[in-house]
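In keeping with the milestone schedule agreed at the kick-off meeting, the structural modelling team has produced records for the first pair of proteins. Each record is given below as a sequence line and a structure-token line. The laboratory manager (R.T.) confirmed that both were archived under the project's standard naming scheme.
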Amino acid sequence: MYNKAKDKIICIQGLKGFGAFIIAFVWHYHHFAPQEGLPLYRFLAPFYNYGDRLVEVFFLLSGFCIAYGYEEKIQEGRIGFTKFIWNSVKKLFPPMWIALFVTLLLQCIILHKTGTTFIYPNLDVYHFLLNLLGLQNGVLELGWSYNGPTWYISVLLCCYGVYFVCVDRCKEKEYLIFRYIALALLGVIIILLEQNLPVINSLIGRGVSCFFLGSLLAKLYENKHRFFALRIGIISVFFLVIVWGLMKCFGIAVLGNFQLAVILGIAPAVVLSILFVPVLRKLFSFPVFTYLGKHSLSIYLWHFPIQCLWKVVEALCGFEFNYSESVIWGLYIISVLVLVYIYDKLVGEKSSSIFRLIIREENTDKMWSKN
């Protein structure tokens, strides 16, 4: 019989690490606007051009992990809504807040020295409070500010809330899959509406559609003993090869709406390939990927503040780095990884402990246990 406790899906952590690397070190390297072209563009062109689509994979993996770890607990009433959300808040908010304050300090220096902020505008009290509450973009506000990449957390918390209600209100397990499908389609519809309103916007659409597709994949994975798992993985690999071939021959336009192609086809196929094809599963279980995966949240939260730090050095010293040079690109990667290591080693767990102490978790646990 299938046993979740004995099934450690290390390759999922490896895929998170790969995604964090591409987003932080390749896609967002555009922020520096390299003067003479992007470093190693010949080899990294797909990720420089379409690396933002790894965010869809992140949402999908988040839905997968939450469904895999919490679905039974919620249905059996072993965890309530407030405790469920709190488990995420105490993990996400301390590093997000510290990165927010560091970004504020660095952006103020940049603004003082150059007369403008770096990349993201809206350096004001209102947007600071939204960032502090985890509502920085997508839910109530549709403007970029402070540590812009953290919009992911804002949308993710929204997905968590919807997920709990979806599962808690469905006592028949066999019907839950239809709710996942309906919510994934709702996310697609939100994208197709092309509105730029609070809640009804592409950021929410991306998050909801991918999150609940990830929940569907978790159901498939839990029942892998009923299917030819390897066959599913091989079909997924062939699908990805065909899509890549079509894009190389005819351009991205051949896929129509590329965002929906990623959400409905490419991202799920990537995850299924890594889950069910042994060689890929082992590849993404390599220590280099799992190490990055272990620190993926910190990489995601800290890479933009480090970019601001580089711009502060430029502003204070009165010169510009040549961001087109591979050496500078490598030094940027090293600077992020070093800071992330220091933060996670010396600050990360302590900040979470202080956060729980301030909120007085032991008292709130008693309150939640009554619900």
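The second protein of the pair:
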Amino acid sequence: MTVADVDFDGKQEIIYAASTIDDDGTVMYNSSGVMPAESAAPGEIRRIGHGDTLHVADIDPDRAGLEIFMVHEGASSVPYGYTMRDAKTGEIIYGAYIGKDTGRGMIGDWREELIIRTADSSALRIFESTSVTDHKLHTLMHDAQYRAQVAGQQTVYNQPDYTSYYFAGDTDFSQVKVLDFWTPLVKQASSGGMLSGPHAVAPGKRFDLNYSLKTTQSDVAVQDITISYDANKLEFIAPPISKDVKKIMVTSYEEMPGKVRIWIANSSDKHKDLNGNLIKLSFQAKQTAEPGVTSIAISKLVNTNSLGEESLLSGSSHEVQIK
């Protein structure tokens, strides 16, 4: 068993032999195949079965997404002795019927070793490189998938850990943006203006954020809110909308490159305790946006009270991973 974000929604799925379980606990798929003529049940459709070793990584850089390579120990009672399948759909990319238990495997660290059996098959000889590498790269623990897989080492059989990006001798590590790693609640203020919403989005897709006030006792008559974002990665695509017109009205807004300025006015008979979601902000990740983490921030929040007095309130930022 291991974990990986196979559908790129920012949440880890559980890969359990032939099955993959989504982050909400539902089964995404159970991989299966047709039993070959030389098997114990020719023509039957059976699951690919158990194996003590599986590898989840970007094995083939020419294919989109992750792949799962696995060996199977069902011998003649399963359709394959080994398979590589699409991690998102469970589709078999390739595999072969062996008819024997091949449910074991071997893996080292990220530097290649040469493993050779002795002539009488009584032992293995492992040869490793003593050369100094000329690659400079981030630590593997900066990658979310690698960290999650390391954390899962205390569950069932140990499995090798992999990064979520293609990792090989021909990798251009200058293009691996793993330092843009998102962790929940980073840069969130304890009070004042807050942004909340999804933490992952695909290029070309829309997402909405909520602007809210949290644990503030300020007298609110009017607010002047400036939201900043990376215009190379995101677009502001729709007018801001009040979440509750009985509390707040959006009086006007102005768009600028990488910024949107919004004015809201209190429409209730209470000037205090306006905590909660107030307006909806609609963004879209650009189709050309490179994978990585981008930040949307309340860069300025001016509050005007019922006496006409202005003050600055704290604001937060919200990070979204484009993948």
